[in-house]
Design brief:
homotetramer; 288 residues; alpha/beta; Alpha-Beta Plaits; Rossmann fold; 2 domains; 7-stranded mixed sheet; 4-stranded antiparallel sheet; 8 helices; 13 strands; 33% helix; 30% strand; globular
Chain lengths: 288, 288, 288, 288
């Protein structure tokens, strides 16, 4: 990410492997005068699937974005592939949902301010008031939306309205301790990222550090994943682990785990907002 | 482990926390003229349990081992604690059981020859003949005990006879691809160590790398544990993980996993033969 | 660290190895009715040195702290050993010195608020005003002490006065970009902890990430150490590393390194305030 | 690496960044009917340099290799870029040089037999006879070439003759404890890989574990690199680290380090024989 980052376009392509697709795409860019800056492919040979991430310099474009995209559409539709393009001069908008634990919230806000995350943080939403002063410290709008079993549908509707009105691209669950309804989840497919405090698929659900302690594992982990209707089962974006020992109490595991949670969530957000993640078969391809 | 290793005694004590137990044990050793070389405690405060590993210099013993142990027994029995003592001049005897995959077998034999493992390797037993030349290369007796569903009980009996006749202290399953019968397992409680090719409790059973690949995890792991009657559920001794990515095929995961398996199994064997592992509540205390 | 943490006393002993010292110390504690909670030894055999960290329950003390310490003094002085004792009900006082980069500052303040660090943070001192709002957000007194080459001696004197008046036990350099004078350093022996942004002894001095980038290393590191008169040469307390690759620019290394710096510095501070670190021969013993 | 690995061609290109080079290369392959299987680019933007690794399916080639390479040559020479191509049906030939320590030798031979390394191992050369039985166990030709200060030139000449006569592509120094002469080194540029037992640039030269122990580092490392005329200064291919502690003696560090050395050397050899490594400015680009 240099000073010319704002002139960068990113094209993501995925679908059935077709001979010549690499050449066609690069010819289109060449024809429009757009210099290719970076390109990565991945082929899942057994599944006969192809994935590509390609970055190009928009500033050298001889035509315009609409014309360029029209050609991408033609090539990809003919090849039965899905595609999307993003320009760095339009930063993605992120909404953070959180509860009482604030380590991931602080972490994302600090990284954002240190320019580690190429996005705008549009708002912080919490079911508790505690996050308010934190959001204000970083000059981010804060919305307190308390929730009970009875008011859950209404609270989610209020959150969705805030999110949609602001044109939010990505929802980040930064230790948000509420299970989102299927209706909410399916409204934002592959646009909600959660951090789970275990090395999934081990220790699904709540109290993962307690589960780990009782099992006597020698490492704990954290997992960031897209949220799907099935709890803790969405496509995994990033995982990390750290050693622990018999001496570690549940509190020690929780403390060690916080460091993992922060890094693993921030990494997933960073990759997502930089258009590095593609999803298929319940898994992710990450062009890091 | 220096040149005086052979003069070292190791005392392991575990049981309900009793005031004064640390002092009593050190007084006994002092009284017998045995210098304390190293001492580690661990208290599981919520469970009110106490664990100690203590190393002492046998060469300065003013009395003898029998008298010393008699006093240990009295103190520990009075306190309701279990204990065991081991002297480095009596190396533990290890039997390795293996099948076709030879990376863990080689690894243990090479480490043993490089003096990383303070034990004797008494024999290699395999249900396949392939390990024979490897055992011979390292001058270790080899026993080929083929097995079918029908002959399993007899094969295990033959193995047990070889093991018992040689006074084997520890059985190491170095990618032994047979599930041992409950009868065999219960005969050697906390004396059989297995290596499982996943980060337990994730991916129990066979084909763990395939399971990991299908789930799309971003790290794979390996786990060494004592074998109990319940498959892959025994007390965990050591675990390790390594990063993987969408590019990694099942074969790549298998290759990366082999490095983990070797290290995690060897670490567990090393800790066991150095009397660093205590078991309680299905978990291990490792004084590393 | 449980709810009884405030009743814990910690004794650190180091010096020439003496037979019977373990027993003597535990007898003293026993005699005063203080239950031993945890105990760790380390012997540097070639150097004939002995180190012990022992935690005991002060609440069961039959006598008082002054009497207890008098006996410790006698035993240790007779054995030619140095010792110190600390009680958890007197939290250590910490001063943080920082400059413009705020990631370590935020990290320490957040961890402190999350009760990860068993100390008081008495003040933040900076040669830049930027840290002011951060300190205020966490309700920590802030002192802006600008510095130029000409005013350095006076600025350090002002800092020392603030530090001494508040009875500060530990000075933490959280990316403080000034080299402290030998006079200042020697005033606080083994009481100043710095974070260096490399895997020492590689890449001493400034621009460590640039040095690493130019060398083409495949991992970068961070090192926390006590500050001594010789730049970046003090006893190392903790180190950590993370993978990097040819794709990583100096900015990427800096970003990755920030995560290391935060963790490695916080770990050192945590160990220090919990009296887990002893120093000898330019190295540390860490009872973790 | 699947069953079709032998039909794979790998093209490596590096040089000044030229607009359209990606398109040109893919057009050539397309024109010859060769399906692109995988492609990776890297641009060093500040240096205006471009690197590409491209794998294609040779079995679908409509023309022949000579014609294809002729076009590669034209395109690359016009663009001022260097290039090389390799076909998987011609396995690279590797010579291993070793001394007394055998852990890296065993490791490479076992990995080779387990098909982790896509090369032939043509010979083992050692200045000690000990490696002979190991080489024989794996059916690899062994040459004992003892060396003294006086015979060094002759010994190197004998080694070079064996190496050249066998058409060796890569020389691996698997703990070869002799410093090769500049004459020998310059004869095989970027074709000699060494394993150094430290995290370079820390602890250059001999006794690296002792140096690390004296410094009191909290992690040790290993580094594989191409050998150049300047000792331990060649382009780094891979590094790894592992935690250590004050309890670790030099022997413990040596033991822990062996695991690093094995993995780091094997990784470098694997990447080299799969044509994943490019060198520029004393650094490597690794397309892993």
């Amino acid at each position: 990410m240099s000073g010319t980052a704002s002139k960068v376009g990113t094209l993501l392509v995925q679908g059935p492997h077709r001979k010549g697709i690499v050449t066609s795409v690069s010819q289109v860019l060449n024809g429009h005068g757009a210099t290719i800056l970076d390109s990565n492919h991945y082929s899942d040979a057994p599944a006969k699937l192809f994935f590509q991430r390609l970055q190009f310099d928009v500033s050298t474009l001889a035509t315009d974005r609409v014309t360029l995209e029209k050609e991408f559409r033609e090539i990809c539709e003919n090849a039965g592939m899905s595609w999307r393009v993003w320009y760095a001069d339009r930063a993605k908008r992120v909404a953070i949902l959180t509860s009482k634990q604030d380590h991931c919230l602080y972490d994302l806000l600090i990284r954002h301010r240190n320019r580690e995350l190429a996005c705008d943080i549009s708002m912080v939403i919490s079911n508790h008031p505690d996050a308010g002063p934190i959001a204000r410290h970083f000059n981010v709008p804060f919305h307190h939306l308390p929730v009970t079993t009875d008011t859950k549908a209404r609270q989610e509707a209020a959150a969705a309205e805030l999110i949609d009105r602001a044109g939010v691209d990505l929802i980040v669950l930064a230790r948000y301790m509420q299970i989102l309804s299927p209706a909410f989840v399916t409204r934002y497919p592959m646009r909600i990222i959660n951090i789970h405090h275990s090395f999934l698929p081990a220790f699904v659900g709540g109290n993962a550090y307690r589960q780990a302690h009782e099992k006597g594992v020698k490492m704990i982990g954290a997992t960031s994943h897209y949220v799907t209707a099935e709890l803790d089962q969405g496509p995994i974006i990033e995982q990390s682990t750290v050693r622990c020992a018999h001496r570690d109490s549940v509190e020690d595991l929780t403390r060690k785990g916080r460091d993992l949670e922060k890094q693993v969530l921030a990494q997933a957000v960073r990759w997502h907002v930089e258009d590095r993640v593609l999803v298929y078969s319940g898994k992710t391809v990450v062009f890091d």
